[in-house]
Amino acid sequence: MTVPKAKKPQTRSARSDVTSQGTATLAEIARQAGVSAPTVSKVLNGRAHVAPATREKIEVLLRDHGYRRKRGAARARPSGLLELVFHELISLWATEIIRGAENVARQEGLTLVLSESAGREEMGLSWVDGVLTRDPAGVILIMSDLTAEQRELLTGRDVPFVVMDPAGYPADDVPSIGTTNWQGGYSATRHLLELGHRRIGVICGPADVLCSRARIDGYRAALETGGVVCDDVLVRHGTFQTDAGHRIARELLAMPDRPTALFAGNDVQAMGVYQAARELGLRIPEDLSVVGFDDLPISGWMGPPLTTVRQPLVDMAEAAARLVLDLGRNVRPAMPRVEMATTLVVRASTAAPGK
Q1: Cβ-based burial of 2 (10 A; exposed 0-12, middle 13-18, buried ≥19)
Q2: Distance between CA atoms of 62 and 270, rounded to whole angstroms?
């Protein structure tokens, strides 16, 4: 009688196509990319010394196979960096955010790294590649939105991120720190109405940016509450820069029935409004009242000192930094989406019309 040979239990080789979870092994991804497994590991862990073209090929394979670092696993040799990513790094506004983030970075023994997305509101994958190479302790994105692919890349490498002052409505699972932009727009306009102004213009940032829309919505609500019909001719959009404030103010103040007050979307735009008023021979606040937004340190030194809506930029940046570092430590926040209060700061740039 012949006894059949027992079958040997199947063992998984280093080149097995899938793991027990259905995810390709590093060895299989290395084979498909034509590189070594250590090279794949470098890309997975955000290490340097991988050619850009090779890194891109490996990233595509990692995404295709749903490969991600196990949540909660220790991150190999963290870089000790905290990264801030701005859509543009050219404003006094950015300085306040840097100051807040630096306060926390210094307390935590981290080095602050600054990046920008070249003025684009959506960052390309090349920026994400840079983050993966640097492997920061956390990333704070300023006035930006993340695509699903960008989010997957950061999450897949266990790089925590927080959006501060988001450009759009962030997804429910994206932590964010913002401010009460609607209330700020309402307060600024209400202040001008109480002074007696009825012809009030508004200059804000891009129409597709969340804070711009919210500030203008607050402006419209205040007019409606005050019984004033909103004249859409007086509602203008531009960039959040001085030249936009200057150009649009020149247009509004050249109208036959010009506004007696202007609400600028930020203090930097308000500086442009001041320049336009000087060029047209208008006195502030006797001929034109001006309100800004942000309460940058320079607003108190403008001539005359600027009435403005204070948003606590330093506090917002500190809160964003603490939140992203907590996420990196697997501390889940009680409130992943926070809005900090705005307050009106009345100075000498506003008065009753004709005074």
Answers
A1: exposed
A2: 48
Instruction: Give the neighbor-by-neighbor strand order of the sheet with 235-237.
Output: 235-237, 200-204, 261-264, 289-294, 307-310, 343-345
For the chain, give percent helix, strand, coil, nearest 5. Answer: 40, 15, 45
- The predicted-structure confidence for 64-120, as pLDDT tens digits, reads as follows 776 655 444 445 445 689 999 987 777 788 999 999 999 999 999 999 999 876 544
Helix (H, G, I), strand (E, B) or coil at 71: coil
For residue 203, the cross-strand partners are 236, 264
208: tokens are 């597709």
**Half-sphere exposure in the Cβ direction for 218 (13 Å, CA):** 23
pLDDT of residue 268: 95
Q: Provide the CB-side half-sphere exposure for 223 (13 A, CA).
A: 21
Euclidean distance between CA atoms 55 and 49, whole angstroms: 10
pLDDT value of position 76: 47
Sign of CA dihedral 145, 149, 150, 154: positive
What φ, ψ does residue 200 adopt, rounded to 5°? -115, 120
Residue 271 near residue 249 (C-beta atoms within 8 A) = no
The span from the CA of 68 to the CA of 90, in Å, is 35
What are the C-alpha distances in Å from 222 to residues 12, 225, 229, 258, 307?
Answer: 68, 5, 10, 20, 17
Identify whether the C-beta of residue 189 lies closer than 8 Å to the C-beta of residue 219. Answer: yes
Query: By the 8 A CB rule, do 306 and 273 touch?
Result: no
Q: What is the rounded (10 degree) CA torsion for 312, 314, 320, 321?
A: -170
A 10 A CB-CB count for 256 gives 4
3 state DSSP class of 275: helix
Position 9 confidence tier, pLDDT thresholds 50, 70, 90:
very low
Q: What is the pLDDT of residue 64?
A: 76
